[in-house]
């Protein structure tokens, strides 16, 4: 079973975690050596940044040794490997993680202490590697960790963005974006591999030639060629046996900037639209659930896919020469959403035009190589590219896409003769006023497996998004529920809880998270409850200090720490949380004896820079926070904190301190969520809707240990069908009305009436597209129940313990075991 695969491949090493042992003295010596010879400084002059670099360099020595061994082993065994194609990898910081995975954290800590340096301060020097937006990018990072931990041959392929996700500043309550320069002062983990540079053609035209045998040959004369320079980031598995790589491509202009002189008519145009080669990998597009539709974005996608495929093929040919029959036995490519879907026609182009395989053989290889993960059902997030844009940038690929579609539609014709409605729906080409290529459809047609990321989401993918595909290819659509790495999201980020767990049930849970279930036995034990909650208290005190440091706001650590951290999006409904906070505020003003336990509402969220309403919601949270935090009538009971620049390293500080986890998306909209898993794993109680993985979390922890509220997916569907009118609620619920009307005044924005009106408008005249008002009453009730539950110290402690105990399912090791079993069919390769 999947679980056994996960266990087998991780068990061996937990007994033998430190196959590479390094004594404190050796670490110390290595750090000092790097301080001297890598950084050219010494113990007296070095600041924390220099110590960070020297410590990282010392670790990297060990990492590279294991990397060499791993690569040699994989080469000798000629293993099948998974190639994880993703436009985003949200890695966060690497030093602490690498130390934990080498089981050297404590040793390094002690070594640095002897040098008069605090490891925790040193770790803070590392800039986050924020090459992703949110859940999708972080999932890729957790998967790399699990793949290496489970000794699975794997390589991540992506883009070496010069600037990751923007740094968020808050000025007068509003979000300001500042560039992120994560490698400005160098990055100790990455290795440039100029020996593996690839060239990528772009633009130009296609020439049709007729061979002697009458065969039609297509020749693409590109207008421009760019270089892809690979940077490798070693990925250390837990136990440090396998070290895989994440290979990120940086764009550069090629030496011969061969503008196509034959295309003289287009010469001036081509100049004007000259994409400077270097700009391709300059910056990560900061949208999470909307597509950018920009030419540069498509070029980014093609750029990294083309480089990666060439890289894969070079490696394959080294072992198998021109024998293509084994390609799909050796290579599986997982497409992380449709962002790398252009890899499908690119592989076809290589096989048909370059290798000169016939179409059917090439297509057979392709469709045994690719698998596709869908991460969203939101229509605005489904990628579509204008045919004309692809035609211009990738003139050969558009021909291939048409050919794929033509053959696919004849299959559809066989299945549903004469049914043009179905044909129009399934077609890869959307025949709108501007013809579009539907990347989702292309991905389904070109893959052997398609998966959603939580049970409910996969069900909706099957029933609503691609229903006919299920009829056409039964069994192709699957589920793999997301997971998170417990190494980063418990062991490293919550040392106090990890230690407590270790004392109680031993230390093998990080490689087999189901073992946490043994904690259930102690859920009713008063001593353990006290120990567990004492850890939570300490973590809250640490976060309170961080809040003070970052915002100047003092918070009561005896209050409930209620946390909502995720990208800002209407469907995630931070504004539902906000109007409820305003209602509590109002209740307290109207009735000073209103009974509620003190509560600190903490938010972290970035808004896409062009998403006006999302930015308005951030502004509103900050304005309401200002008012409440400075209102002596209530500020001993409610505080509201918006922590700027939410990112992986900040999440690592917030999650261990959470009492409550807000997971309140409109049912059917959040594909899975992964923050929900991280928070529950650290003993936070979820208040959430029956959406995404919340449903599976509820199944694991049981109804008594989670606060579920709101409409189900079916009820949401029914209400939309019936016609939802938010005014019905506005006029019937006095509290809702009063709170929304409050947004129209200048109470929260003195002198600026109307500054928060866009929120009210979106929830009323805007039709409240995510049905905040419809779920309001139920949300308010769930909050009352939560408040009562918190008052019972023992009950709450039991709930918290059971949340941690029951999260075993959500380790990314289990997700990876599911992928291996259901899709990839990989076998672990032990690296001695
Ligand atoms: O993927 C998220 C889902 O919203 C979340 O429910 C799920 O848990 C997670 C992992 O499966 N999706 C997500 O993070 N998407 C993006 O970040 C994203 C980024 C770029 C674009 C679209 C979506 N884009 O079109 O450019």
UniProtKB/TrEMBL annotation:
Gene3D superfamilies: Glycogen Phosphorylase B. Its cofactor is pyridoxal 5'-phosphate. Keywords: Allosteric enzyme, Carbohydrate metabolism, Cytoplasm, Glycosyltransferase, Pyridoxal phosphate, Transferase. It catalyses: [(1->4)-alpha-D-glucosyl](n) + phosphate = [(1->4)-alpha-D-glucosyl](n-1) + alpha-D-glucose 1-phosphate. Its EC number is 2.4.1.1. One of its GO terms (molecular function) is pyridoxal phosphate binding. Pfam families: Phosphorylase. Transmembrane segments: none annotated. It is found in: Cytoplasm. One of its GO terms (biological process) is glycogen catabolic process. Its main location: cytoplasm. The modification N6-(pyridoxal phosphate)lysine is found at residue 678. It comes from the Bacteria. GO terms for cellular component: cytoplasm. Phosphorylase is an important allosteric enzyme in carbohydrate metabolism. Enzymes from different sources differ in their regulatory mechanisms and in their natural substrates. However, all known phosphorylases share catalytic and structural properties. Allosteric enzyme that catalyzes the rate-limiting step in glycogen catabolism, the phosphorolytic cleavage of glycogen to produce glucose-1-phosphate, and plays a central role in maintaining cellular and organismal glucose homeostasis. Belongs to the glycogen phosphorylase family. PANTHER family: GLYCOGEN PHOSPHORYLASE (PTHR11468), MALTODEXTRIN PHOSPHORYLASE (PTHR11468:SF25). NCBIfam families: P_ylase. This is Alpha-1,4 glucan phosphorylase. The gene is glgP.
